User: Fold this.
Amino acid sequence: MYVQLRETADELARVLWREHAVYRERGGGVVIRGEHVRRWISLAPTGGKDRALLRAGRILDGGTTAPARSEIVVDLTAGTAELATVCRRLLADVAAGADAAPGPSRAGRPKEKAAKPGKRAKPSRPRRSRHTSPGSWFVLLCVAGVLGAWLYSLFGRGGY
Assistant:
């Protein structure tokens, strides 16, 4: 399967980009890397005969690759022109996503308000209060009860 992926990747690379690098992934797939367009395409085996998972993504500053933004399962018996068309569509999706969100992603990080000079910025999400919760009170009462029972057993019967 790797030989078929490698041959298909070489043909696609020549059709898509004049400058490219084709290399093997750890998982047994093949990556086509276009440094001049800052995009990559990956062909990975899917377990089915003559089928591959085609993924596309961006190349970030410093040469690292961003996770795939688009993926599709393709039939490797289709001609190079059809596969190139699918690749171009995926690359267009990646380019559209890159234009919509330039710069580093802030997904998952809370937004913070601008702080005045000399003051610390307050987080936008409300913090839980620092008061003791009812569960903690219950545990404290149980510990106090056990401690009281032990002390009563020692001193409550007139032992000392």
